Amino acid sequence: MDETIKRDDFAWFMKIPTRWIDNDMYGHMNNARYYSIYENLIMTFLGPVNGLDTGTGAIRCFTAENGCRYYDALKYPDVIDAGLRVARIGNSSVRYEMGLFAEGNDNIASSAFVVDVFVDADSERPTRVPDNFRQVLEGVMLPQSESNS
Amino acid sequence: MDETIKRDDFAWFMKIPTRWIDNDMYGHMNNARYYSIYENLIMTFLGPVNGLDTGTGAIRCFTAENGCRYYDALKYPDVIDAGLRVARIGNSSVRYEMGLFAEGNDNIASSAFVVDVFVDADSERPTRVPDNFRQVLEGVMLPQSESNS
Amino acid sequence: MDETIKRDDFAWFMKIPTRWIDNDMYGHMNNARYYSIYENLIMTFLGPVNGLDTGTGAIRCFTAENGCRYYDALKYPDVIDAGLRVARIGNSSVRYEMGLFAEGNDNIASSAFVVDVFVDADSERPTRVPDNFRQVLEGVMLPQSESNS
Amino acid sequence: MDETIKRDDFAWFMKIPTRWIDNDMYGHMNNARYYSIYENLIMTFLGPVNGLDTGTGAIRCFTAENGCRYYDALKYPDVIDAGLRVARIGNSSVRYEMGLFAEGNDNIASSAFVVDVFVDADSERPTRVPDNFRQVLEGVMLPQSESNS
């Protein structure tokens, strides 16, 4: 993913307002905060929006790898349009690709990926992506996802 | 302030959606996060909403004291209705009183106060609350504020 | 508690180094971070230091009220000497009083109190402070605690 | 970088104790917190340890890209041994490579990279890595850094 990605390259969006504390000493949103924003996007899509249990149930999602690029500084009080797509669903893992746009701005401010592994809550060992998750994740796959990752 | 405070006891509201990371190991919004929410309420009221410069200008607001009561646990994915009033404006300080309500629930979940001191950005010494701040702050004073504080 | 409190007024100390992100846009440790520092002090005293289970066990500690005063700004890269005492142990609650000092400085930078309620993890209803907690908490009560609170 | 990286593959270490709030709802250190730990490692190496001004001076470091792999969950109350090396110094950028180890454990728990761009504080445009930074950064380059990145 790079700066050429457009809003249309994502399948699902939510609005996330920044908070005053998101800015760090440099007056921009701190880089670690981006990851909290991306995490919130994924977890909100899975849980509150699609009714999947990612919390206290038998299945948990652990992050194996993630990464982020910063093209243009977001900062409080921006409202963020956060976009999501699923690039790959493996046996026990999923690759999310995401982008953040300042409200009213079509240039992408940041792109990121997260590889989550589904684990059994008790054993903490990888487990097959359950069918109900698989169905929800497939709903936000885009034809071009793989080639851009 | 206590559990009997109502929505009508506040003069200005904004909506603040919780984020997944706001919850701590106990599955509720962490107590320190409440203070970030309250801070965001004050700073958004002053800055983006009323155009006052609380950032890089000549005047900064430093917190001298704050406190919070927790009546009912807020937690992700709650959307918070955050209410604000000003209880007292002194020569160089202001006392904010605030309350948080889960959207759709009229029982207060948490109340808090913050005493901020206005300081000169260079000297970091207290300075008189400027007239433009004073005017904005007076706009959210309520007749009953002082007696409930 | 006020600015006259000394290091000797606390019964147990730990060192907590600040992190770069603890500072906010004003270049000082953010007020909400103080609460995370105080929380870390209490939880480390109870858990890792004294072997009490505050995590996934049958007993959890929920904060009912807390408050903090800020006398002198702490900021990264300060190392904090964080001091703790217990002021009161009730049937199902405990009142902690704490202070933060910059390493090498005997003037208190911040003082705080936290009232925690012990709850049953399943019902989330208040429960009697268990004897093993009570014993640990009594170990950091000071004769003068009550009168200064 | 991968799981085979050893402590010897890093040139400089500091200890960073975890805090109770670093754990998220899953009881492990939250992925965004890793980035705050890595940031703290870089900023502490540059500022307090080597006396470089990364704060209010003429030069600031903005992150262009970062990424992290998670091999083994760190969690409070772990003390982290955080290791740093510099893999590349460009005209206006630097690539840091880092690893986190739980104290007393020689298996790497997480590895990460950060690409920082040096910018002029006023214009926020890239600027040449200053000589005093360059000298400090070269001090933690390792012969094998480039090939492992």
Structure in words:
- Four copies of one chain form a homotetramer.
- With about 150 residues, chain A is of the alpha+beta class.
- Chain A has a single domain (about 5-140), classed as Roll (Thiol Ester Dehydrase, Chain A).
- Chain A is about 20% helix and about 35% strand.
- Chain A is built from three helices and five strands, in the order βαββββαα.
- Chain A has helices spanning about 30-50, 130-140, 145-149; strands at about 10-15, 60-70, 80-90, 95-100, 110-120.
- A five-stranded antiparallel sheet of chain A has the order 1-3-4-5-2.
- In chain A, β4 and β5 form a beta hairpin.
- The longest helix of chain A has 19 residues, at about 30-50.
- The radius of gyration of chain A is 15 Å and the shape is globular.
- The interface between A and D is medium-sized, with 22 and 22 residues.
- β2 (about 60-70) of chain B pairs antiparallel with β2 (about 60-70) of chain C, so a sheet runs across the interface.
Briefly say what this structure is:
The structure is a homotetramer of 149-residue chains. With 149 residues, chain A is an alpha+beta fold. The first copy, chain A, has three helices and five strands; from the N terminus they run βαββββαα.
